[in-house]
Amino acid sequence: MNSSDRQNAQSSTQTIALYSRKVGENGPDFVVLHGLFGSGKNWRSFAGSLEDDFQVWTLDARNHGDSPHADSMSYQQMAEDVARFFAENELENVILLGHSMGGKTAMQLALQFPDRIAALIVVDIAPVCYDHLHKQLKLIEAMKELHLAAEMSRSEIEKKLAVKIPEKRLLSFLMTNLNRQNGQFQWRIGLEQIAAGMPELLNYPELKSVFKGPVQFIGGENSAYLKFEYHALIRKYFPESRITMLENCGHWLHVEQPAAFQKTVNEFLQDNNLR
């Protein structure tokens, strides 16, 4: 997708044709939704571990990865983007996994379109409002302020960005959003659009519906996103949910503890006759 395509932002009332990658040719459909500042590429190893038993689709959300940019990005809009993807690819009874922002999108989709979801896996997020606005906006400002010059190398960009973002894991993660076009690096994510939508992304719409299918919540014990105090609300929306906290990891469970994360997912799939 070239830069001119990216600049054609869609109307806020329209769904977006999401970019996808697929591995596996047989079995149920398994769809993965990434988190904020991520893309489907972040889940390649996990998708590969399932490709013998599932058709695994990793999607790029609007304003992320190789998907088009859009002026707004509410959870209802992003859920409808995914629902459109299901319809276009004739996916039914989907096993849906979402991490962080993708987890909120997945919950919204399951609550809004429950007949399309066979099972739900939510990774280190809850259906609550978070107060991390200042932190997330600081990351966006750090990326925007770099003024990427044609002669700058990836290592030079990383060194400059490290001044404001010293955390190595987070820095490496954000660097995956750099893309070289016409000999010059640029950010492929919609920084302006994400910044404008950040208050809504940290919030969560209150819904009256309930998803009664099987649900697995997986959190990191060193993360603050899936606190015990949120568990009652989780079970209000998802009464058949179980919650598993993984030891010695934070928000990026599938990267920090891949074996334990995969084991938890596999046990959930097996216990619910999904594989």
Explain the overall architecture:
The protein has 275 residues and is of the alpha/beta class. The protein is 38% helix and 18% strand. It has eleven helices and nine strands. The strands form two sheets. A seven-stranded mixed sheet has the order 1-3-2-4-5-8-9, sandwiched between helices. A two-stranded antiparallel sheet has the order 6-7. Strand 4, helix 4 and strand 5 form a beta-alpha-beta unit. Helix 5 runs antiparallel to helix 8. The chain is globular, with a radius of gyration of 18 Å. It starts with a helix and ends with a helix. The N terminus is likely disordered.
What Rg is obtained from the alpha carbons, in whole angstroms?
Answer: 18 Å
Average pLDDT figure: 92
How widely separated are the two ends? Answer: 35 Å
Strand content: 15-25%
Query: Which structural class should the secondary elements be placed in?
Result: alpha/beta
Report the principal-axis shape: globular
Total of DSSP H or I helical runs spanning 4+ residues: 11
State the low-pLDDT regions, or none. 1-12
Strand arrangement, major sheet: 1-3-2-4-5-8-9
Q: Order of helices and strands, N to C?
A: HEEHEHEHEHHHEEHEHEHH
Total strands: the figure is 9
DSSP helix fraction: 25-40%
* Biggest beta-sheet profile: 7 strands, mixed
